[in-house]
Amino acid sequence: MTPLISFRDAGVAFGSKQVLEGLNLDIAEGEFVCVVGASGCGKTTMLRLIAGLHPPSEGVVSYAGQAIARPRPEIAIVFQDYGKALLPWRTVSGNIELALEAAGTPRAERGAIIANLIALMGLEGDGGKFPSELSGGMQQRVQIARSLAQRPQVLLMDEPFGALDAMTRQGLQDELQRLMMQQRMTVFFVTHDLEEAIYLGDRVIGLRRNPGRIGKVFDVRIGRPRDQVATPEDPEFLRIRRELYDFIRDTEREPAS
Amino acid sequence: MRQRDLLWGLASVCFAALLVFLWHLISAYRLVAPVFLPPPLAAFNALANGFEDGRLASATAETLERIFLGWLLASVLGIMVGAWIGISAFARNYVMPTLELLRPLPASAAIPVAITFFGLSDAMVLASVGFGAVWPMLLATAYGVAAVDVRLVEVSRMLRLGRFSYLRIIALPNALPDILSGMRVGLVVALIITIVGEMLTSRTGLGQWIMLAARSFRSADLFAGIVILGLIGLASALMLSQIERWLLRWRLQA
Ligand SMILES: Nc1ncnc2c1ncn2[C@@H]1O[C@H](COP(=O)(O)OP(=O)(O)O)[C@@H](O)[C@H]1O
Ligand SMILES: [Mg+2]
What we know:
Chain B: Residues 60-244 form the ABC transmembrane type-1 domain. Chain B: InterPro entries: MetI-like, MetI-like_sf. Chain B: It comes from Aquibium pacificus. Chain B: The chain crosses the membrane at residues 7-26, 68-89, 101-120, 126-146, 182-201, 222-243. The complex is a heterodimer. In chain A, 37% of the residues lie in helices and 24% in strands. Chain A is α/β, with parallel strands linked by helices. Chain A has a six-stranded mixed sheet with strand order 6-7-8-3-9-10, sandwiched between helices. In chain A, strands 2-1-4-5 form a four-stranded antiparallel sheet, with helices on one face. In chain A, α3 packs across α4, α4 packs across α5 and α7 crosses α8. The termini of chain A are far apart. Chain B is mainly α. Chain B folds into two domains: 1-31; 36-253, MetI-like (MetI-like fold, Orthogonal Bundle), CATH 1.10.3720.10. Chain B is 84% helix and 0% strand. Chain B has twelve helices and no strands. Chain B has helices at residues 2-28, 40-52, 55-87, 89-94, 96-102, 107-118, 122-146, 150-158, 163-201, 206-215, 219-247, 249-252. The A-B interface holds A 51, 53, 70-71, 73, 75-77, 79, 81, 84-85, 87-90, 98-99, 101-103, 130-133, 150 and B 149, 151-152, 154-161, 165, 169-170, 173-174, 176, 248-251, 253-254.
C-alpha cells in the first residue's frame, strides 16, 4: 500500500543553518503519528513541510504520491496559539464558517454543517459567542471544529494542547481520540509532552537535533480506546515511556546550536 | 459601568453650562464689545430666528450634505487605495512614494488647484474635501491591512483563500479599528475644509453664513453659525462612536 504522506531524503535549511536533514518517513492512511523532541529541533518545521507552508530545501515531501508544493485542501492544521488563529471579530459559528466559505460550500448548506461541528466539539450554546468570551480550551475546540469543517484527510496539530491546563488537556486528548476512531483521519501530532505522545500515538517519532533528524521510532501497541487512568499503567506504556525518556535525555546531551 | 457613563455625561453637560455661563459673564460685564461677542441669549435668539425663517436651516442642510459627500468620497477612495497599498508590494513600492509626496500638502494648498480645475463650484469643494480627508483613512487602511498577524496569514494560506477573499474576510476586518479611527479624523477634516470652501465659493452654507455675518458685524448670527458647527461636530462624533461600539463589540468583552 502506498503511504499517504512520505518524506524522501527531505531537509530544510534556513540560510546556512541546516534545520532538518535526511528525513525518511512513511505515514499510512489512518495512522496517528506523534513527534517529540527537544525544543528547537525542528518539529514545527517538519509539520510545515506537510502543510505546504514551507518547501523542503532538498528531497521531497509528498501526499498520495504528489509532491506538496503548497497547502492542499485535504490537509488541515491546528495551531497551538488558538488566540491568534481565530478571527476575534467573528463568533464561534463565524469562525467555523470561515473554512466553509473558503471551500466554496453553498451558504444554504453551511448552517447544518456548523451545527453538527458545534455539537461534535461540545460547543452547544456557544455558537454566538466571540472567542474573547471563551476559555482557552473552548477556543481550541473552535479551532479544531474549523479544521474539521475543511473535511480533511490529514490533520496536522502543532502542540495543540500545550497551552492548556492538565484537566482541559486530558479532556481534549480523549475527544481527539474519539474523533479519530470515528472518522478515519490521519494525524500528525507535534508535542513536547512524552506521555501525551504515547497516549495518543500509534507511532512516536523521536527527533534528534542539530540538525534535526529522526532518531528513534516507537510503535505503540496499545489497544483503543485508551484510558487516562489505565493506559499510563499499562506495561507497554511504561516500557516505551522509559525508552523515550532515555532517548530524549540522550539527545539533550548533544550540543545545542 | 452605566452609572459611570451617566456621571461622565453629566459632568460634560456641567462643563458646557459653565462655559456658557462664563460667556454670559464676559458679555454682561462688557469685557468684550457686543459687536464682537454677543450675549449667549442673543446668539440663541439668532439661532431660533434663523431656523424660523428657514435660511439657517437650509444653510445647515447644504453644509451637512457637502461634509457628508466629501467624507464619503474620501472614505471610499481612502479605503480602496489603502487596501491596495496594504496588500500589494507593487503599490507599496511604486504608488506609496508619490502619495507620500502629496500627503504633506495642506488641504488649503489643494484648494487653489481645485479652483483652477473646477472653478468656484460645489465640485471644487467636494474635491478639496476629498483630497484633505482622504489621508487618515488611506494610511489607517494601509496600515491595518498590512498588519495582519502572521498566524492569521497562515490560516488563510491553509484555507487557500484567494487574494480578494483574503482582503474581504481577513485583512479589512483586521483593519477595521484603524479604519474607524481614520474615519473619525477624516470627518473633522471634512468639516473644516467644507467651511473654508463655502467661504471661498460663496455658495449657500454655514461657511458663507458665518462669513457674511462677520463682514456685517452681526455677531449674534455669527455665533449662531458657530454653535451649529460645534453641534455638528459633537453629533457626528457621538454617532460614529455608537457605530464603532457596535462594529467592534467583539473587543469590549473579556
Ligand atoms: N523562518 C525561519 N527562519 C530562520 N530560522 C528558523 C525559521 N523557522 C524556524 N527556524 C529555526 O529552525 C529551528 C527549528 O525550529 P522549529 O521547527 O520551530 O523547532 P521546534 O518546533 O521543534 O521547537 C530553530 O532553531 C529555529 O530557530
Ligand atoms: Mg514548535
